[in-house]
Amino acid sequence: MFTGRVNLPAVARTQALVLWIAILASFVSFLDSSVINVALPAISRELGGGLSTQQWVVDAYLITLGSLILVAGSLSDLLGRVVVLRAGLIGFGATSVMCALAPTVEVLILARALQGAAGALLVPSSLALITSHFDGAPRAKAIGQWTAGTTVAFIAGPLLGGVLVDSVGWRWVFGINVLPIAVTLYLLGTLRAKDVRQVGVRIDYPGAVLCVLGLAGPVFALIEQGNYGWGSPPIMAPLILGILCLAGFIWRERTAQQPLLPLSLFNVRNFSVGNVATALIYAALSTGGFIVVLFLQQVAGFPATLAALALLPVSIVSILLSSWFGSLAGRFGPRWFMALGPALAGGGYLLMLGAELPVNYWTQLLPGILLFALGLSATVAPLTAAILGSVSERQAGIGSAVNNAVSRVAGLIGIALVGLVVAGQLDLGGFHRVVASTAVLLILGGIVSAVGIQNPVRKPEAKKGQHDAAGNTHLGQTFRRGR
């Protein structure tokens, strides 16, 4: 007979298992994103191709990942978090093996696109798994632990990749996914909690197709324009088709009963402005990380391991300071942190304009990298808080998915533009141009935030135990979300 008692140890064990599954599943996706840049020169040397090939190895993954994240969220609701997560893990493992065994660059690019599609299933499903097993303050803490766990991937990825490239070869870079995937699948098999499915969910397949084509066409044109020329049919046809598909995607999302991208979210000021800032800032982050690692290997002659270590200070500073800046933004509001942080980060890239050949990392690059790391640490937590704090708790899941997709698509476009900025040839001058454009994107992100972001308005603090008109007990300070 049911006594009304809850088996707290069993619940705690299930929550701990869920948290580990979510961290490891997302770790796989983030690890692959962070490890690839350091392997690009070795891939190009073995399989052939120049800068455009390297761009495709990165962007083939980001096209499918960025365009399918919202679809994956709907699939997770329809089929269940565990089912979708298991499918994503198996798919990611299989496509990682395809990447490792690719005999040609064309096969590698195809495998990377399939890998991105599998990766799109991992992040939304892992977050949905957390939200379905945690509530209130424990949920916020679990998401914070999930974020910290995925941060490890950004630190470990380049280091592991550099060591593998310099020791046993670039193909093993894709093999490091196998162990965490196997462990996560085992843990999923031991999870006895009931899977969560929502009734009445419909997937907007036409919207998904339009989104994929709308991104792929312009990205193809940006990457391949150096090989064919802007006026050639192989460039103009996919460019025009992609633009038309993007317009069709926006129209579809306005008219669909269950859109992938609820455009009404962008009526909220901090959400819309925050995502514009996200696009500018994350395009800069992807472009900057891509070009620094490539320049150090292909132009400055650094081995892969040392090139990977070059950006390690960014991760260390972020781990040390991000939480502190997040607390400050909670006290004083996110606006000026989102304005000054990107400006500082852009200043860091401007300092890198002093790089000359031969490169002295300690005097020419490290000061700029440290200033960039400081600015980035002041930006990320306030940016996330401003965006997710502007929508209701009921919309937090889709709000997070939209922001994640915006950041991935921004990185995709940023990488695609690199070839245009360097004029097809990566040298010292090309490096300076990309570094300068990265700084401009960051500073623009700060300006957009300074002009558009609104700090939450403090409500008068109610005494402990005091009730408002709706009968809610106030236990502390509350805020009204900025619109």
Walk me through what this model shows.
The protein has 3 domains: 191 residues, MFS general substrate transporter like domains (Growth Hormone, Chain: A, Up-down Bundle), CATH 1.20.1250; 54 residues; 209 residues, Growth Hormone, Chain: A (Up-down Bundle), CATH 1.20.1250.20. 75% of the residues lie in helices and 1% in strands. Helix 12 runs parallel beside helix 14. It is globular, with a radius of gyration of 23 Å. A two-stranded antiparallel sheet has the order 1-2. It is mainly alpha-helical and 483 residues long. The chain is built from 16 helices and 2 strands. One of its GO terms (molecular function) is transmembrane transporter activity.
In brief:
The chain has 483 residues and is mainly α.
Quaternary structure annotation: single chain
Order of helices and strands: HHHHHHHHHHHHHHHHEE
Annotation field: number of helices: 16
SSE-based structural type? mainly alpha
**Biggest beta sheet summary:** 2 strands, antiparallel
Distance between the termini: 50 Å
CATH superfamily of the largest domain: MFS general substrate transporter like domains
Neighbour order of strands in the largest sheet: 1-2
Keywords: Cell membrane, Membrane, Transmembrane, Transmembrane helix, Transport
GO molecular function: transmembrane transporter activity
Transmembrane segments: 16-36, 56-76, 83-103, 109-130, 142-164, 170-191, 203-223, 235-252, 273-296, 302-324, 336-355, 361-388, 409-428, 434-453
Protein name: EmrB/QacA subfamily drug resistance transporter
